[in-house]
Amino acid sequence: LITMSDYKQPTLEQSDPEIYDLLQHEQTRQWKGLELIASENFTSRAVLETLGTIFTNKYSEGLPGKRYYGGNEYIDQVENLCIARAQQAFHLNPTEWGVNVQPYSGSTANFAVYTAILQPHDRIMGLDLPSGGHLTHGYYTAKKKISATSIYFESFPYKVDPVTGYINYDKLHETALVYRPKVIVCGASAYPREWDYERLRKIADEVGAYLFCDMAHYSGLVAAQVVADPFKYAHIVTTTTHKS
After folding, report:
1. How far is residue 183's CA from residue 176's CA, in Å, rounded to a whole number?
2. Mean pLDDT across the chain, nearest whole number?
3. Which of 34, 63, 193, 231 is most buried, judging by how many CB atoms fall within 10 Å of its CB?
């Protein structure tokens, strides 16, 4: 395996001391500060090593076995291995669940879902951001559409009960019957309660909607089987790799 010492080129410190200095400052900030952003994490050395390899040199547009460029035989093996490991991690039957591991973030994964099953201006329902939802679930303010989701699609939020802090499923059901969304989004970035996926699926079926779960913030708990499993009821599930 080629290591950094095999490259007869200047190091980052030598070629760009300004960027190197900023990198050192960021490293100090991460290690000496107290990080309270729940969605951030410290990645492992193995992941950092992988991110700094010659895989970054390769174009790999397309899917395994169906690339637009040649020379992807090892990239295909990596991607297929990642797919199989994802299915194994979440206890999925490969004949029932396909996996796409190509999005670079949860936000792009979510937008890929929307563009795959919706037309512009189709309707979605997601948990309101002040109730613990995520920006990509359709949030907007009176003055601004916050994300591409609310720009390209119409959205109407459901909310938590201000007294109990739990999602008001009765109100959600009532709203869905009137609004008739094409997608109901569940999962959140700041909602610490269990989700009633079975009830959400029944509501989605009643109004002819897809049930889409964004489990990024608690997917580790799903993999460990200590919280409810969205795969039993959702049509589509997205996640990231590092939040829990």
Report:
1. 10
2. 93
3. 231
Question: Does the pLDDT value for residue 7 go beyond 80?
Answer: no
Q: Is 211 helix (H, G, I), strand (E, B) or coil?
A: strand
49/226 Cα distance (integer angstroms): 31
**What CA–CA distance (Å, rounded) separates 63 from 37?**
34
Structure tokens, 139: 């949030």
pTM over 0.85: yes
- In this prediction, residues 30-36 reach a mean pLDDT of 92
Task: Tell me how far apart the alpha carbons of residues 124 and 111 are, in angstroms, rounded to a whole number.
Answer: 12
What's phi and psi for 164, nearest 5 deg? -90, -25
**67 Cβ neighbours under 8 A, 6+ residues apart:** 60, 61, 75, 76
Asked if residues 83 and 99 have their Cβ atoms less than 8 Å apart, the reply is yes
- Selection from 203, 175, 177, 184 nearest residue 118 by Cα: 184
Residue 150, pLDDT score: 86
Ordered DSSP codes for 191-205 = --SPP-HHHHHHHHH
Please report the domains of the chain, with CATH numbers, ordered by start residue. Answer: 103-238 (3.40.640.10)
